[in-house]
Amino acid sequence: MSSTPPVLEVRGISKHYGATVALRDVSFVLNAGEVCGLLGENGAGKSTLVKTLSGVEVPDSGALFLAGSEYRPRDRNDARRQGVATAFQELSLVSTLSVAVNLFLPDPAVNRAGLVAMRRLEQQAARILAAHGVSEIDSAALVGELTLGQRQRLEIVRAMFRRPRLLLLDEPTAALSDRDWLFDLVGNRLAEGAAILYISHKLDEIRRLCRRSVILRNGQKVLDRPVAEMSDDEIFRSMAGRSVVERFVAAPSAVRTDAQPALSASRLSGDGVEDISFTLMAGEILGVAGLEGQGQARLFRSLVGLYPLRSGRIEVAGCGRMVRSPRAARAAGVVLVPEERKTEGIFKDLTTIANVSLPAIDHASKLHFLNRRRERALVGEVIGDVDLPEHFLPLSIAALSGGNQQKAVLGRALMARARCLLLFDPTRGVDVGAKQSIYRMMRAFVGGGGAILFYSTELDELVHLCDRCLVLYGNRIVGELQGPALSQEQVLSLAAGHGLERAAVSGR
Fold first, then answer.
1. How far is Cα 483 from Cα 247, in angstroms, rounded to an integer?
2. Which helix (H) or strand (E) element contains residue 59?
3. How far is CA 49 from CA 10, 79, 200, 438, in A?
């Protein structure tokens, strides 16, 4: 038996928010050179535990020990000084500052005049990024100009480059197209003796990286065992208290080929969009696949007027539309569910019911006064479609788990009476139970005559949920797959730029 104390010991930690129990008597240890998975459904207490270890939250009871010494971080900076670094799922970067400044926050080096020496800082940041295999990000660029995947990389590098002895990775691959990049960095940190707590909903990642996992349910630890000893079904039952193994249920096609397209795009061109044409039929889920930065985000945003187009035509239900804003798109029946729910999807200072009811607020008001009973009745018509529990409605949406926040965003889209939904990676960072709710909502929506344009970083979602799939490369559509041709291997091949000369249309 080694006499070396564990890098981290969590002893009886509890945390309450009013009457809500976020953590209850949680205990476990984490040793040097070990990756321990932390699993649980959305709302199980994972994020609260990470915030407690990071110095963001103070536990109500219990104790933390770091390398045998009591650990009471006052804030994130204090945690970092003691050797604990976190890459958060909800990115903590400042969009109005440069990559270099963000990398060294909160204390970038200053010169004798007390000013930040930007050129030196940018050069140092560029060396750090290159050492971590990130050469495509300009250290002088504003963070707000980066793609979500690039910001995820920056968040991870910022947590790793100081070589912490305890590294907390919260859903680190949620926005990454290249997971091997992260796995290589994890291997390097382990070789240096770091301990890593790895939070993910992706079991293949847990099995690849972690020898053991701690599972939380309703704020309590329910299992702490080697991963190899547990089947997928046992893991899911422990997480949810029921069997919820991720599955895709085959459904009959609801595509209506006898009607006008719900949405059609003809030769759209603009910044990040090159000569894109497609049709989306009522009753259809049309997938969009592409590696990071291939134009998918620009395409979705252009369709609702968030980015201007130089040329091309958009038609909704056969009518040409000049879509200049999300409001105009919504009036035409086209609603975007964006990729970043925290910054683009929710109004975090409002209650959950207020977030859901916004599109129908006029119908719930009379003489400019809101009728709460009418609002509740209108919201009640959609929350069942997204499996959002009614008791969450009066709560601040900021207090909800990521999965329930996403359900609220989807409920708001349904409240807008959308005929065409643009879903941009809607299952990113949500647990398997919430995924199943989203899948059911999608099937029901197209079954009722709606249409969905659906981008996902999860290839199995595209393969199993979509009637057809468009593949983007270099801001263009390079392939359309359906039927037997719609496979993960074929999607990946086209997305990587292979076989483009024969990929105009496949599977018809």
1. 19
2. none
3. 10, 14, 14, 26
Do residues 38 and 214 make contact, with C-beta atoms less than 8 angstroms apart? yes
Residue type, 342: K
Instruction: Rounding to the nearest 10 degrees, give the CA dihedral for residues 79, 83, 84, 86.
Output: 100
Asked: is 259-333+418-508 a CATH 3.30.1490.20 domain? The reply is: no
Number of H helices and E strands in the chain, helices first, is 16, 22
Beta pairing partners, 422: 336, 453
Dump pLDDT digits (tens) for 219-232.
999 999 999 998 88
Residues 6+ apart with CB under 8 A from 390: 380, 383
What distance in Å separates the CA atoms of residue 142 and residue 124, rounded to the nearest whole number? 16
pTM: 0.74
CATH 3.40.50.300, the chain: domain bounds: 8-96+146-240, 259-333+418-508
CATH 3.30.870.10 fits 8-96+146-240, yes or no: no
Nearest to 186 by CA among 157, 147, 146, 207: 157
Radius of gyration for the alpha carbons in the chain, expressed in angstroms and rounded: 24
Helix (H, G, I), strand (E, B) or coil at 331: helix
- Is pLDDT at 183 greater than 90 in this prediction? yes
Instruction: Give the whole-angstrom CA distance, residue 175 versus residue 186.
Output: 17
DSSP string over 246-278: -----------TTS--SEEEEEEEETTEEEEEE
Beta-strand runs (E) in 200-249: 212-217, 220-226
Q: Are 200 and 46 in contact (CB under 8 A)?
A: no
What type of residue is 84? V
345-377 confidence digits (pLDDT tens): 899 899 999 999 999 888 888 777 888 889 899
